[in-house]
Design a protein that fits this description.
The chain is built from 4 helices and 8 strands. The protein has a 4-stranded antiparallel beta sheet. A 4-stranded antiparallel beta sheet has the order 5-4-3-6. A hairpin with a 3-residue loop joins strand 3 and strand 4. Helix 2 crosses helix 3. The N and C termini lie far apart (42 Å).
């Protein structure tokens, strides 16, 4: 950690993500409004690299990000199943993109272009592509997951870009898209 509490060479104020297209947001945001304490900070997304580079290094990073995206193919996924990440006292509810291999390939390509930005794969089970929709106490999480699943209509998502997002310190701590990098069309 540096003097400011930010990891050297990394910042929790920036990320590289795949953002769900806004026309698909309504059913996801309806769930998030009820269950996600991060509703106002993050848009619906799948995280690829987080934390990412500090703001003063983004200008140099944008061309590299565009190059990696241009060398990666757009792909389709379906958001059909809810899953849980279980923590000590609570759980995170999330939608599983299927197939998840294209996200893994994209994350690997991005990590190769940005060495050291490997936090998303350092979890015990490695990188798990997911779209978070909320949190719940551990003893209520499975029931909530089942209820959400019972009422869910799967969404098809064409992932055709990655987004560099950034936020300011509180109270300006809402992530906004800084740059979009299109993926190549098949």
């Amino acid at each position: 950690m540096g003097r400011s509490g930010v990891m050297e060479g990394k910042s929790p104020l920036t990320a590289v993500v795949a953002v769900l297209p806004e026309e698909l947001w309504p059913p996801v945001q309806e769930i998030r409004r009820r269950h996600d304490r991060q509703l106002h900070r993050w848009m619906p997304h799948v995280t690829l690299l987080y934390p990412f580079l500090p703001s003063d290094r983004l200008t140099a990073a944008r061309p590299r990000l565009r190059q990696v995206a241009a060398e990666s193919r757009a792909f389709e996924v379906e958001l059909a199943h809810f899953e849980l990440f279980r923590h000590e006292r609570a759980a995170t509810l999330w939608l599983r993109p299927e197939p998840n291999d294209p996200f893994e390939a994209l994350r690997t390509a991005l990590e190769s272009a940005f060495p050291g930005m490997d936090d998303t794969r350092r979890f015990a089970h490695g990188f798990t592509p997911h779209l978070s929709v909320g949190q719940a106490p551990l003893d209520e999480a499975e029931g909530l997951r089942a209820a959400l699943q019972a009422g869910w209509r799967p969404l098809r998502w064409r992932v055709d870009a990655v987004a560099l997002i950034r936020r300011g310190p509180p109270p300006r701590d809402v992530f906004r898209i800084d740059a979009l990098a299109p993926l190549s069309s098949p």
